What does this fold into?
Amino acid sequence: MDRFNVIFDAERMKYPHTGLYHFCKQLGLALLEENKDTESFDIQFYISDLSSLPFGNHVNYIQQKSMHKFLRPFLPNTQLWHSTYQLSSYFPRNPKTTILTTIHDLNFLKEGKSNEKERKYLKKLQNNLDRTDSVVAISNYVKQDLLNYCNLRGKEIQVVYNGSNMASNSLANRGVELSSNNDKPFMFTIGTVNRKKNFHVLPYLLVGNNLELVISGIINQEGYDNHIMEIAHQLGVAKRIRITGPISEEEKYSYLKKCSLFVFPSIAEGFGLPVIEAMSLGKKVLLSNYTCLPEIGGPEAFFLESTNPDYLIEFGKLNLMDIINGEDRTAEIKSWASQFSWDKAAREYWKLYNELLK
It folds into this structure.
């Protein structure tokens, strides 16, 4: 039986503590597991750091180099290249190589960038789509954005949802003790700490209650963490907020398990992986009603109808504790989250791989 050579582009794993890092790692591992029974594909991983071997030492790797942006590898024996980042500069040079591209978001159109930058990124995305044979969006929201802003030239868009790795027993067994004040009720959120995540609205929710707030994630917008704390000081709630910076998967698991409520007020999101991670553990979630979050949170989520400070303060005083102390719907929340799994995503991608290489 012929085996097809597939290269899985995991170049974005050079940025740890990001959604793209976890997407590449979790989907890559799930694809290897899916391939075990038939071994239809020889999957190789395109990564920048060959010392880390994130998919184990039993698979093959190709080292990503910056020069590949200009001198793209020819790779004559590769039948399929899976590009996992919509603005990637790393595509194979061989025109016979089939390309599947996963599109995570068009957030650059929602972040208040200049018209010039928006046009630049949109042109880059369009060029990548023109080179792509098959397009995957990680939510129906992203699919609709692609239809609105790009020319697919007749190509169909398949929606394949992300999964969650928070329900694994291995993480449960490796949970860690959290730092001080973890015995007090607290809200938790995690993500890259920048303006599009909208974390600066969260201090308003602390007015009129005794909840604490923990914000975790890499700070990639200079001064934004200070902006959050400035608002908190003005509201008199700064002593109840901690911004931890990046944390490990074990720490994330522990925070999710112990928090009273997971909050995610993002205004630019393609999927919202932390939302499903929280829900897979049965946690109630409070989300903004922007972008894909109503789709991903579904009927088991609670939503903020506005980010106006007066609305948020009133919500914190009148609604927040009712949500936390309300009906226990752990089973229903876990059931909703169970439809999002990396195993399911891998099966859908594996099916696409087969269809493209028939």
Notes: The longest helix spans residues 19-35. The chain has twelve helices and 13 strands. The first strand starts at residue 4 and ends at 9.
